[in-house]
Amino acid sequence: MNINRLFFTAVAVFATVFLTRMSASGSSPIQSSSQDKPTQAFFRLCSDCHDADRIVSNRRTRAGWEEVLAKMVDKGATGSDQDFELVLYYLLSHYGQVNVNKSPAEEIQVVLGLTQKDVDAIAAYRKANGDIKDFDALLKVPGIDADKIDKLKDNREAILF
Ligand code: HEC
After folding, report:
1. Residue 159 reports pLDDT greater than 90
2. Measured from the CA of 78, which atom of ligand 1 is nearest?
């Protein structure tokens, strides 16, 4: 698969994402079990040439992970389009980074493990008040599941403002 093709298919990733989520035994992406399809795809495609630990030492945005995947295809990583979509989903849901003011709603959902209702609340807040300034402001968005956001405290680098 060539790089352009990879970028093209990555656009379709979120279709896969929601199907995957439904088959991932209801767990949130951030805590998904080691048995789910994205995790399997990640270990199958990404552990031949180097340690998985080294790969995920940094959180990255979707664009950042897409760049890495394109580079790995260049280095010789192989898999089907769907495999790469699953790997991208795995990377984003476990080691993603997202801008809560600028990124598409689906991406915010995937990276932060939020529901449609949560991202709708974020969108409504932004419309009324402008950008969310920081973590504390995100916690106070009316209608958002604050407990869920609070659990992201230790993963703050996942959230860009
Ligand atoms: C065919 C061998 C091969 C496979 C398979 C492979 N990689 Fe790599 N990867 C490499 C090599 C070689 C490097 C070192 C390249 C470099 O640093 O320029 C590397 C480096 C990396 C880095 C560090 C890159 C950086 O810019 O710092 C990341 C992240 C990474 N790989 C992720 C992945 C992911 C995710 C997968 C699964 C899709 C994967 N790799 C599969 C060969 C591979």
Report:
1. yes
2. 5
